[in-house]
Amino acid sequence: MTDIQETPVHALLTDGTTVRIRRAGPSEHAQVQRLYEEMSPENLRLRFFALSPASARHAAERVASDLPGYCALAAEYGGRLVGLAEYEAEPGGSTAEISVAVADQWHHRGVGTLLLEHLADAARSAGITAFSADALAENHSVLEVFRDLGLRVVRHFDGPEVHCTVQLAQDENYLSAVDARGRVCDVISLEPLLRPGTVAVIGAGRRPGSVGRAILRNIHNGSFTGRLFTVHPEAGAIAGVHAWRSVTLLPRVPDLAVIAVPARAVPEVAEECGRAGVRSLLVVSAGLDRDQAGALLDACRRFGMRLVGPNCLGLANTEEAVHLDATFAARHPGAGTAGVAVQSGGVGIALLDGLARLGIGVSTFVSLGDKVDVSGNDMLQWWESDGHTGLALLHLESFGNPRAFSRTARRVARTMPVLTVDAGRSTAGRRAAASHTAAATTPTMTRQALFTQAGITAARTIGELLDTAALLHAQPLPHGRRVAVVSNAGGVGVLAADACVEAGLVVPPLAAGLVDEVLSLLPDGATAGNPVDVTAAVGEDQLRRCVGLLARHGAVDAVLVSLVPTAVADATGEDLVRALTAATVPLPRPVVAVLPARPGRVELLPTADGRAVPAYSDAEDAARALAHAAVRADWLARPPGVVPVLPDVSTGRAKDLTTAFLGRVPDGGWLDPRTTAALLGCYGIPQIPWEWARDEDEAVAAAERLAGPDGRVVIKAYWPGLLHKSEQHALHLDLQGAARIKAAHRDLVARFGDRMAGVVVQPLAERGTELLAGVVQDEVFGPLVMLGLGGTATELLADHAARLAPLTDLDVHDLLTAPRCSPLLYGYAGGPAADVGALEQLLHRLSRMATDLPELVEADLNPVLAGPHGITTLDARVRLVPRRPHNPYLRRLR
């Protein structure tokens, strides 16, 4: 069963209204009959092709009958049914007939489309691959719904009727269509929250130190363009704003209510706001327990209110038409183009202060707090659409739906830089690792995979985030990693060059012709090998022309200028810093300064061309910022990547194997060798030939059949739960001849006794590079595919890379090139190169297996032997546990 079949969910319509989607069943008879009875005659005719008094009754009986192969989903608002979508399939069939009905007053708000998305998800889970529907040719509305779903639709006209067949396979076109619909709904729902015309503050105390009073004062003094109210049981006035005793007594219903009451009172206040028609809530109150937070969210869902918080600093929108500062920060954020969303209020204050020091203004600031509703995904979609934001800064301690976040982020990152602080790097592993793959994957690796694939710039600290934001805000992106280092003192130039190389940049020697051009501009004694030492005698004009030449020349991609104050410059009145800011024509490549004598970590120096030069006090900070900019440029230059179509994949057979195993082992566990091999075989994953042997005679016979020209084999003990054979010395290698095979078998029996169910016999593999390839299903992030150095030292050396499935061709390329051992695959030091194409296929097939089977929680292929003639898996373990399918791209609120 899918989630929607067991637990109702809430989702947004195109006008921002929240509806509840749930399974409809026998108890729905009266509501369904009323839905149809209240329809206009014209809509009834379009739905049933004719008018009949019995139509409503028959439709209600159908929903109440609970037929086999039948599923009905209902959309309700305020406890009233507003839409219904149904399918009925023949038992064992793969096509289902569908129908959709929407209440008259709810047409053209996206109810039917939303229901069909959820119905299609339920159908896929039931093994249905296509919907069929009949409609009147004049029923343009329903035909448009089918056409705009994003799924492949075939229409066949037969007189006044149209027969439609809708293929349910999800592809990129469908997911993009769902994204587009979701973005429209989400942004509209956030309008009352982020662009309110009326705001009420509830809980602004009379004492000056209260949080609510601070927020009220910030709104009142911050030039808010709308109407401001406050609610207090004693009425009167607070901070110069007239107070009302209740939300229900306000002269206008607020778009936004700011709640700053004690935690125990929050659910009741939220309920009151919902009944009064308030459209959004900002809850700054802290200390809500699970029940209180649940009651708060329940009120928001029932009354269709979007919610920021609880336990947050507030929100601000500096747009000229809004000017809202609903925070208790000490200073109003300046207007600008940086969107900021944080979970921690303290981080929020630090980012706002840092941006203010840099002179970078803010478009929208939202402190998400406990992130019960509005999330980083919502804010990315808002910034994408608001027409004001050009730089997105995030601090997220958790991810509610990382797959949806990743899709949104990689789309938004194409239009603006998206930066985050990678918080929580020191967290221990999710659980005790049961396999090498699980041991190697950590929360840090998982988050970094998400950030890398989505094009998010991930900094390690707030300072590094601001360093990078300053560069991306003020300078063009580099086209590569080559940096020219210019300095007026040799020592600081060397330190700057070291910092660049350590950050992953390149400081290449300059060509002879360019060296001559540079030296012709500089004083005697200058050198231009890179670093370029302009000497302490350099003048302002000389430095300006030198930097301009390098920034315009194609030999480098960025220029880093490190300057220290000298008595020479003081004596001549030269201002070397001014040489970096005097250009009247924008330079085509980024220029950054390192000024060790400056007290601040980073500042933006305004330039004559209207830009700014970021100036850092430490070369390492400048180099890291340049490296982040280079990574972003690389990401933007790459195509999005495609998930290839794989031949010879038996998804149905794999699901049957999974179902059969979990039928025998309801709690799940590790597959036996035969089932493991069968499951891998469904995806065409190459395995070394092997046979099962129950005793020493069967082992000898198997060895005779499997042994290569030299007759050498390997035997491995097996029993349920055996994971690391090498650690337990549960295998014998390089065996030749019946006597040695029997002796090895007797040794295993003597040491492991009745625990051992049998042995696996394999031919001795040829030499090659030993790799670890595997899958781990993260409960939050979904399947993660990993590749790295394998063999017995895999955990010791920890040389691995990971990406979230499904893998595109570019993700696979990254997996092959990211580990430190990757040169071994390409013929390092004259060694044989591995069959990289076969490795690519292996990773794609692991990715497909992981996305097909949510029950697959671990797959550990170690070692995978990679050589010039292909690859083969020498040992594999797979663990399955019962899990419901979960579609991360289905439109629903948290």
| Most strands sheet | 8 strands, mixed
Termini gap: 19 Å
Strand order of the largest sheet: 1-2-3-4-5-6-8-7
User: What's the quaternary structure here?
Assistant: single chain
Q: Radius of gyration over alpha carbons?
A: 32 Å
Quote the beta fraction. Answer: 15-25%
Low-confidence stretches: 1-5, 427-437
| Overall form | flat
Share of residues in helices:
25-40%
Count, helices: 29
Alpha-beta content class = alpha/beta
Could you tell me the mean pLDDT?
A: 91
Total beta-strand segments: 40
Architecture blueprint of SSEs:
Blueprint: H1 3-6, E1 9-12, E2 18-23, H2 29-37, H3 41-48, H4 55-65, E3 70-77, E4 80-89, E5 95-102, H5 111-125, E6 130-136, H6 140-148, E7 153-158, E8 161-167, H7 172-194, E9 198-202, H8 211-221, E10 227-231, E11 237-238, E12 241-244, E13 256-259, H9 266-276, E14 280-283, H10 290-303, E15 306-308, E16 314-317, E17 324-327, E18 335-342, H11 345-358, E19 362-367, H12 376-385, E20 391-395, H13 402-412, E21 418-421, H14 436-440, H15 443-454, E22 457-459, H16 462-474, E23 483-487, H17 490-502, H18 512-519, E24 527-528, E25 532-533, H19 540-552, E26 558-562, H20 567-572, H21 576-581, E27 591-594, E28 602-606, E29 612-616, H22 619-637, H23 651-664, E30 669-670, H24 673-682, E31 691-693, H25 696-706, E32 712-718, E33 731-736, H26 738-752, E34 758-763, E35 769-778, E36 782-789, H27 794-797, E37 800-804, H28 809-817, H29 836-852, E38 856-867, E39 870-873, E40 876-880
Parallel strand pairs: 5-6, 9-10, 9-13, 10-12, 13-14, 14-15, 18-19, 18-20, 20-21, 21-22, 23-25, 23-26, 26-27, 27-29
Antiparallel strand pairs: 1-2, 2-3, 3-4, 4-5, 6-8, 7-8, 11-12, 16-17, 16-19, 24-25, 28-29, 30-40, 31-34, 32-33, 32-34, 35-36, 35-38, 36-37, 38-39, 38-40
Helix pairs in contact: 2-4, 7-12, 9-10, 11-16, 12-13, 13-15, 16-22, 17-22, 23-24, 25-26, 28-29
